[in-house]
Specification:
48 helices; globular; WH-like_DNA-bd_sf; three-stranded antiparallel β-sheet; Rossmann fold; DNA binding; Serine Threonine Protein Phosphatase 5, Tetratricopeptide repeat; five-stranded parallel β-sheet; mainly alpha; P-loop_NTPase
Length: 899
């Protein structure tokens, strides 16, 4: 160890280090940087801005062990050196609780010469410093001396303009933090800010550590570690040699050997006995208020313990602003449970049982059932599930219930027919169609099972696009059900009504919905009632009544939310929605209105739900609109990811329409970007799964973006206007005959473009007039904007006719001007063509690909690894919409970015 008072052999340069008795030299300077360190650019910018403001006197960097506090300070010290700012570093230790020792150490690191090292002399010297200054105190949690804390507070008050104190600590220090915050003199950087974002985790794992982890596993690793730097570092050490990185990520927990050692040495061992006991007693709880902790520990001091843990930054996260409910960091909680199992194997189950009893006493069955299952009491859990199944199903807790029932032995479920039928419905609504039918077959000897199995099959027909089959069996089944005020009865009504809508029998659909909604004053299943109201809104949308559709859907959602707020504890607790279909239909309406900000907010909540449960239309609408929103914002990578996800989901659930929808969107965008060869290829792939488009069914998610529309748009772009016109006229006649006026509007717009393309200017404007007459009163906007510059030019020509012609045509005043204005605003936000987003290095790689070079040769020419070349290739394919290197070269040549 390098000691400053050792014989004069040290070559380290530091002010007066050689004259300071007994100081460890490494404490007087920042630790050395590392090539694998991730530069925390955003946090460094925050620190630099705070320093430059001269208002912030102290930066408090407080978090548990391993969050990168020291690394951030080291990087800021380097920043100071590069920007002409004096930086004085001191890593504190317990001896610094002696004020004289602290003054001695501080004297060793401050710039300039002093004649004395008393508290006043040092304060005066710092106050007189005329250059920007950063004083960095690491490990401040070792300080508890009142005199030292008082000196530091005096130091903070005496700091001159341009000087700032930066303190890293594991615990909240006694420095009058509240007073400093109220004065605007404090910048408080806590663990939430220190966590690596997903992008930072990706850069660290892939670029710094050279590990080729795919997006899914990277996201899983980031989620599991919650961006905690030490956990990511320890995970990468194991990933370097692990034969199956994916399996390692899935299994990574606080019980991982290196991580467990870290927790044991750096965290758990540092706590007193009472604290350790509290942690072990409460670690089984996913989230907890103080009262629940008291129920488990029996000690009555939980509030004080939680306050202590929070002050100590001990991996405790508050879940509300009032700090009444908390959780532990996932990895820390799993480490604690590992310790508990090793020391007291039965205690974990006992604590879960106590927690279940506490929740049941409060009439909160959802967390109670969770804890009963964790306690190994499936019979009691089944009893609670059966007791609350009606409320939970009515509230749309489908995924929750599937998670429970999947954990219980199938024989136990089959022994209770009512629960067994509930399980079958849960499987069906989670797109587990085959499992749902098999579940009904195990319910032998139950009088309702056979009939309800037929109902399940009829609903299954509707969910899988067999609308005629649903109608054939559903109508008679509806009359046979003994008690229609059941989940099965209401769900069958919705399936039957949706099937009628799909075959354009709108009056019969409304009749079924009317009977379903009017059967009782108090509809017992909020989610099925909302679905019924949603189907009525979908009818309005298909028939071109956009304003009515949006109003009806908004009303349905408002009613659902009111029901949610007024529901009992069993149904309301933790509901994420259950109303995916109404949100997906609203998203389509909002998109047509061009209300893109509202659309993005809606999709952010709806897309995660649509991924795992709901109808095929909800799956398609949320993914396509989310992708389109990303494309409009210029995020081509996100557009590609969402469409790939939709395609994959479609293949998993065997929905050709979902697969086709993803490729139709690719073809649409390629056409608008002028990549006509790529558009043709995408359309051909879409039509491989395009049988759905020839059934005559009307599905709202694919009502507009269907093969006939996408092909007509492509034909117009290819100057095949005559072919497009012929196909559009046939499709338009069919749409008008079926009262599908939303589709008819889009077909008229494209027909006007086809007519204009072949020189029939007057006919084009007449066709456009009919489209505008309908659209202007319902406020359809995207139907026009989505056709790009050619349609906008035609609109401008139409607008030149003047106000009198507008009134004569029955078009709402100002509508065309609003369209042109919206197009002008959108033009300033148009996505950059994918090729233009290629970096210089990516263009270089693409050119080498076109020359026929393989990855190894490219790596040698660019002086990089083959792993880096592969990373470049992934980005190139994503940006160009290519499936392989051959397609990437072809698209690059078509766009003119390579020869």
């Amino acid at each position: 160890m390098n000691i400053a008072d050792a014989p004069a052999t040290s070559t380290r340069e530091h002010p007066r280090q050689h004259a300071t008795n007994g100081i460890v030299a490494s404490r007087l300077m920042p630790p050395a940087g590392s090539s694998t360190q991730l530069v925390r650019s955003a946090l460094l910018d925050t620190l630099a801005r705070a320093h430059a403001s001269q208002a912030v006197r102290i930066v408090l960097i407080r978090a548990a062990a391993g969050y990168g506090k020291t690394t951030l300070m080291q990087q800021y010290a380097a920043h100071c050196g590069a920007h002409g700012i004096d930086a004085s570093w001191l890593r504190l230790h317990s001896a610094n609780n002696d004020l004289e020792r602290l003054l001695l150490d501080l004297d060793a690191v401050l710039p300039g010469q002093r004649s004395a090292s008393s508290a006043d002399a040092i304060i005066d010297h710092i106050a007189a410093h005329d250059r920007p200054l950063a004083i960095l105190f690491d490990d401040f949690d070792t300080i508890h001396s009142a005199s030292v804390l008082a000196f530091v507070q005096t130091l903070i008050d005496a700091l001159p303009p341009g000087a700032m104190l930066i303190v890293a600590t594991r615990a909240t220090p006694g420095l009058g933090v509240g007073r400093l915050r109220a004065r605007g003199a404090l910048l408080d950087i806590q663990s939430a800010a220190l966590r690596f974002t997903l992008a930072e985790a990706g850069e660290y794992v892939r670029e710094k550590c050279g590990l080729a982890l795919d997006d899914t596993k990277l996201a899983a690793l980031h989620h599991g570690t919650e961006g905690w730097a030490t956990a990511l570092y320890l995970a990468t050490l194991s990933l370097r040699t692990h034969p199956d990185p994916g399996a390692f990520v899935d299994a990574f927990s606080g019980a991982h050997a290196e991580l467990a050692d870290y927790f044991a040495e750096e965290v758990f061992a540092r706590q007193n006995e009472a604290c350790r006991a509290f942690l072990l007693d409460t670690c089984v709880l996913p989230h907890f208020p103080a009262a629940l902790c008291d129920a488990l520990t029996g000690r009555g001091d939980a509030r004080e313990r939680l306050d202590e843990l929070e002050r100590s930054c001990l991996f405790l996260e508050p879940l509300d602003d009032e700090r009444t409910v908390y959780r532990y960091h996932r990895l820390f909680a799993s480490y604690l449970r590992h310790c508990l199992r090793a020391a007291q194997p039965q205690r974990e189950a006992n604590m879960h049982a106590l927690a279940a009893q506490w929740y049941l006493a409060l009439k909160r069955p959802v967390p109670a059932i969770d804890h009963l299952l964790d306690a190994g009491e499936p019979q009691r859990a089944l009893a609670e599930i059966s007791r609350h199944a009606r409320t939970l199903m009515g509230a749309g807790r489908i995924r929750l219930m599937m998670g429970w029932l999947e954990r219980i032995d199938a024989n136990l479920i089959a022994a209770q027919p009512e629960v067994g039928l509930t399980y079958a419905w849960v499987l069906l609504l989670n797109r587990r169609y085959g499992d749902a039918m098999r579940a009904t077959q195990t319910l032998v000897g139950d009088a309702n099972a056979a009939l309800e199995s037929q109902v399940l099959r009829a609903v299954l027909h509707a969910l899988t696009g067999q609308m005629d089959a649903c109608i054939a069996s559903g109508a008679s089944l509806l009359a046979e059900l003994p008690d229609r005020a059941t989940f099965a009865g209401y769900t069958l009504c919705n399936a039957l009504a949706f099937s009628y809508v799909s075959v354009q029998r709108y009056d019969e659909a409304r009749g079924v919905l009317s009977r379903a909604l009017g059967r009782s004053r108090e509809h017992p299943f909020a989610v099925t009632r909302t679905m019924a109201e949603t189907i009525e809104g979908i009818i309005d949308l298909l028939q071109g009544r956009l304003g009515t559709a949006l109003a009806r859907l908004d009303t349905a959602l408002a009613g659902a939310r009111a029901e949610q707020r007024g529901a009992g504890a069993a149904g309301s607790e933790g509901i994420a929605g259950g109303y995916t279909s109404v949100d997906a239909a609203r998203a389509l309406a909002l998109y047509e209105r061009n209300e893109l900000d509202a659309l993005r907010r809606l999709l952010a909540n709806t897309l995660p739900r649509a991924r795992s449960a709901g109808t095929t239309d909800a799956l398609i609408a949320t993914h396509v609109l989310s992708a389109r929103s990303a494309w409009l914002a210029g995020d081509v990578d996100q557009w590609l990811r969402l469409l790939a996800e939709l395609e994959q989901s479609g293949r998993v659930i065997e929905s050709g329409r979902s697969v086709s929808a993803a490729w139709l969107e690719r073809a649409r965008v390629a056409t608008l970007e002028g990549r006509l060869e790529a558009a043709g290829q995408a359309l051909e792939i879409a039509e491989l799964d395009g049988a759905w488009a020839h059934t005559g069914y009307a599905w709202h998610a694919t009502e507009i973006d269907c093969p006939v529309v996408v092909r007509a748009r492509l034909d117009i772009a290819r100057r095949r206007d005559g072919e497009a016109e012929a196909a559009l006229r046939v499709a338009l006649d069919a749409a008008l005959g079926q009262q599908r006026y939303w589709r008819a509007l889009k077909l008229r717009i494209l027909l006007s473009l086809a007519l204009a393309g072949r020189g029939a200017a007057d006919a084009a404007l007449d066709e456009l007039t009919q489209a505008l007459r309908i659209a202007s009163h319902e406020r359809f906007v995207r139907a026009f904007l989505d056709e790009g510059p050619a349609l906008l030019a035609l609109l401008a020509r139409w607008s030149a006719r003047g106000a009198q012609a507008t009134r004569a045509a029955g078009v709402a005043p100002g509508f065309v001007a609003q369209l042109l204005e919206a197009a002008e605003v959108g033009a300033s936000c148009e996505p950059v063509a994918a090729a233009h987003t290629l970096s210089a290095r990516e263009l270089e790689v693409l050119r080498m690909l076109s020359a026929g070079h393989r990855n190894r040769v490219i790596a040698e020419k660019l002086f990089v690894s083959e792993l880096t070349v592969k990373a470049h290739l992934r980005k190139i394919n994503a940006k160009l919409g290519a499936q392989n290197r051959t397609q990437a070269v072809a698209i690059g040549r078509e766009l003119g970015v390579i020869g």
